[in-house]
Here is the input.
Amino acid sequence: MLKLYNDLTKKKEYFKALEKVVKVYSCGPTIYDYAHIGNLRTFSYEDLLARFLRYKGYQLVHVRNLTDVDDKIIRNVREQNKTLKEYTDFYAKAFFEDIVKLHFIDCKFYPRATEFIDQIVDFILDLVKKGYAYQGEDSSYYFSINKFKKYGKLSGFELKDLKQDASGRTKTDEYGKDSAKDFALWKAYVPEDGTVFWETKLGKGRPGWHIECSVMANTLLGKTIDIHSGGEDLIFPHHENEIAQSESHNDIEFARFWIHSKHLMVDGKKMSKSLGNFYTLRDIEAKGFNPIALKLLYLLSHYKSQLNFTFESLTNCQTNLQDFNLTIAKLTNYNARLESDTYDEVVKTSENYLKDFIKALEDDLNTPIALAVLFEFSKYVNGLIGNGKIKTETARKLSGYFKKYDSLLGLFNFPEKADDKVVESAWKRFDFRKEKKFAESDQQRDEITKSGWKIDDIQNGFILIKN
Here is the structure.
């Protein structure tokens, strides 16, 4: 049974969905730039979580939002003299290219904040009506954190330590925990906003960052969701503010499980453009790395542990990935003639490896242990196929186990199976070699090579590898 570390309760808890369908909301990218490798680490563990929930038999509605209006975006739109949609569409497209390269499974919804302006306005008006929000002298609308008595239950901030009316207000979306303040729900228009504004019941302006996620989650998933996820940097203020808004609006718990990944460091330092250690997936590819090698590197570290990215570790992961894919390629086009093999023993051993793998993931997605099991399984398989100790059918069964692992990890390539004509030529070559008819054997080998394959001999047959 799946156990997850819940940042709300600060302990591991058994996960059980409220309904048949698991509702998950993940804070997605702010599409003002390319996603960096720290962002992608968070999205990678969320992909694993979604895959594992499906593996456990749950139906899943997974929402990952795209923040397409905030302070940074407006600044860049103004500086580049573009429309909001023109600017954000470019980076949205780049994000979807990234998640395809990383083999992420699709979420059910990828909502954009600008698609929910009417719902945001109505949500804020309800908060005003209930006394949780007010209009400031600047015509913006703010959430009064003193009115929500459970404020700080996720981050640990103690509301009692905040003197009445001493918190002040902020229109800035991001701020530190030591600066807890009434935060903007709706930002009244200022000239710096340029062309980014909406005329609404709240006046001319635009939504604040925090309200956007509350409204999208409420609209697409309902009042209470099973899991809310993101990076640890979002715990305060963003997720704390989401809780305050949502629970004030709905008078019911917003999210049952809160799951956050730790930061990614680069060579032991915080990633920063000023330090020259800021990388996107495009930077990784430009250096000759397979994006999936980066995903493997993510998974080798537990999501609750800080990951130190180095190019040395990425190089090792690329080598490991190539080894995995080569093993799978060998299984896919392995052919051997044996009267019998240890099929039942192979299946039993393979099942035990898989059980250990699943057991590790059930313990708060413990990927370091799970992958250690996978490496051992691959080593076991290579020992079987190296000298042709198993029949063709057994090799195909083993390939099926790799597909089971891949359904949870999204790491591997499964190559095409050689067509019957190529396999027939390879068997002819095998028989000619046994009969010491080397000229005929070489002729068959040349035919195989022309078809785009190379052949590796094993004791009882051969393995075909695509050139």
Observations:
- The chain is about 45% helix and 15% strand.
- The longest strand covers residues 182-188.
- The first helix runs from residue 37 to 55.
- The mean pLDDT is 95.
